[in-house]
Design a protein that fits this description.
With 267 residues, the chain is α/β, with parallel strands linked by helices. Helices cover 34% and strands 22% of the residues. It has 2 domains: 166 residues, 3-Layer(aba) Sandwich (Rossmann fold), CATH 3.40.50.300; 65 residues, no CATH class. It is globular, with a radius of gyration of 18 Å. The two termini are 25 Å apart. The structure holds adenosine-5'-triphosphate (ATP).
């Protein structure tokens, strides 16, 4: 099931990495070399063991860190190579400002990017609506559940209408039912908003459920170990989660992931 690279003269890609490596100042070789194309509008998951460089790959794509070698390119009519306001980033922790209400938390990227304030309120309303939090604009983070905080974090990522959404294990800390619900809501957002999504997770089940393509990374330094195209049709829902097809994909992806854990302490 290994896939050839999806690059091509049609340039239908949003993210392209070529020969990308990252070695930190500490000498840790975190990543690569990595070659990766993500098509516009595609939902891709990076799956791999702890420490294999998944977050590093996201940070390089976001321009939050520079590669040690190789090239990271973003292509979209609206995306400048370093136009980070066109990228939305969702971290594992919601990282909300506790002293600010939901509306002001979601407003933050608009302020940081110095985007015109004329339509700011409408953008914030739209983003809150997209994540189902329209009623909670005036609430403070301490008044919200873990799932709701993550929805605020997602709204904050969406408020600039990014072309590319980078998500770093956003639901890992949530209970299973909340996680499933957010999985479903994320899929419907992706279908409606046509964003390119690169989603990092440890979970085989989550990666198969959400993605059009799952990229299994090797142990550090992370490279592509295997790729799986999850061909199951959209929209996916609970029926898919309990289907034999889903179970078969999960088995296949798990099999490819196992070698990445071999040799890891506690594996
Ligand atoms: N700023 C940094 N300086 C030095 N080493 C780092 C830095 N960031 C990450 N590393 C190291 O690089 C390797 C890859 O880290 P990274 O966070 O990218 O992995 P990951 O696959 O996202 O891990 P996890 O799933 O546990 O979040 C790890 O060994 C980590 O300790």
């Amino acid at each position: 099931m290994a896939e050839p690279a999806l690059s091509g003269p049609d340039a239908g890609w949003a993210v392209r990495l070529r020969g990308v490596t990252k070695t930190y100042d500490s000498g840790v070789m975190a990543l690569g070399p990595l070659d990766l194309d993500v098509r516009r509008g595609e939902f891709v998951s990076l799956l791999g063991p702890s420490g294999c460089g998944k977050s590093t790959a996201l940070r390089l794509i976001a321009g939050l860190a520079a590669p040690s070698a190789g090239v990271v390119e973003l292509v979209h009519p609206d995306v400048e190579p370093r136009g980070s306001h066109r990228i939305g980033f969702v971290f594992q922790e919601p990282t909300l400002m506790p002293w600010a209400n939901v509306r002001d938390n979601v407003r933050l990227p608009l302020k940081l990017a110095r985007l015109p304030t004329t339509d700011a309120e409408a953008r914030i309303d739209a983003a809150l609506d997209q994540v189902g939090l329209a009623e909670f604009a005036a609430a403070y983070p301490r008044e919200l559940s873990g799932g709701m905080k993550m929805r605020v974090s997602l709204a904050r990522a969406l408020v600039t209408d990014p072309d590319i959404l980078l998500m770093d294990e956003p639901f890992a800390a949530l209970d299973e039912i909340t996680r499933f619900r957010l999985n479903n809501d994320l899929l419907s957002l992706w279908r409606n908003l046509h964003k390119t999504v690169v989603f990092v997770t440890h979970s085989v089940f989550e990666s198969v459920y959400l993605s059009q393509r799952v990229i299994v990374m090797t142990a550090r330094p992370g490279r592509i170990g295997a790729e799986f195209r999850i061909t199951s049709p959209e929209p996916r829902g609970e029926e898919f989660r309990t289907s034999a097809e889903y179970a078969a994909f999960c088995r296949e992806v798990s099999g490819a992931l196992a070698p990445s854990y071999a040799g890891q302490a506690g594996a």
